[in-house]
Amino acid sequence: MAFTGASPRRSRRVLLAAGGVAATAYLYAVNPGESGRYLPCPILATTGFYCPGCGGLRSAHALMHGNVAESLSFHPLVLPLLAVGLIGGAWWFARGRPPVRITPDGWGFRLALLATVAFWVLRNVPGWDWLSPV
Fold first, then answer.
1. 73, exposed or middle or buried, with CB in 10 Å at 0-12, 13-18, 19+?
2. Which burial class, exposed, middle or buried, applies to 51 when counting CB atoms under 10 A from its CB (0-12, 13-18, 19+)?
3. Which of 6, 21, 31, 75 makes an SS bond possible with 10, Cβ 3.0 to 4.6 Å?
4. pLDDT exceeding 70 applies to what percent of the chain?
5. What's the pTM value of the predicted model, to 2 decimals?
6. For residues 82 and 60, is the Cβ–Cβ distance under 8 A?
7. What is the pLDDT of residues 19-40, one digit of tens each?
8. Averaged pLDDT, 65-79
9. Is the separation of the CB atoms in 60 and 38 below 8 Å?
10. Going by C-beta distance under 8 Å and a sequence separation of 6 or more, which residues neighbour residue 38?
11. What is the mean pLDDT of residues 68-92?
């Protein structure tokens, strides 16, 4: 009986997981709050408005170092989105398919797009400073 190796789909999942682990290790080791370590946000640099992801790297870095309050001050959605992503990623890795498929013509995509735009607008509205990165 010849060894055929892992399936291409399984190999791809393992490769993506390894890339995720490497990126997480880099983010843990290198503080995004220090100037010159990461590229600046192009939307913030050109328009002066916070994008939906602004503060996300600093939030994830603070969360990895156990600073939950600081993490939430940088980006209030990183913690809940991380939990959803980890659960979905574990499901996808174990079962070979994502728990929910979001297609551009489906209601899930429209809902995610609407929530992203609403968050983007609200974090730039004066008085909603709790949504803006510190």
1. middle
2. middle
3. 6
4. 94
5. 0.77
6. yes
7. 989 999 999 999 998 888 888 8
8. 93
9. no
10. 30, 32, 57
11. 89
Q: CA dihedral in degrees (46, 72, 26, 89; nearest 10)? A: -100
Residue 100 tokens read as 């929910």
Q: Is residue 70 very low, low, confident or very high in pLDDT (cuts 50, 70, 90)?
A: very high
Residue type for position 26? Y
**How far is 124 from 29, CA to CA, in rounded Å?**
30
What's the token pair of residue 19?
């890339």
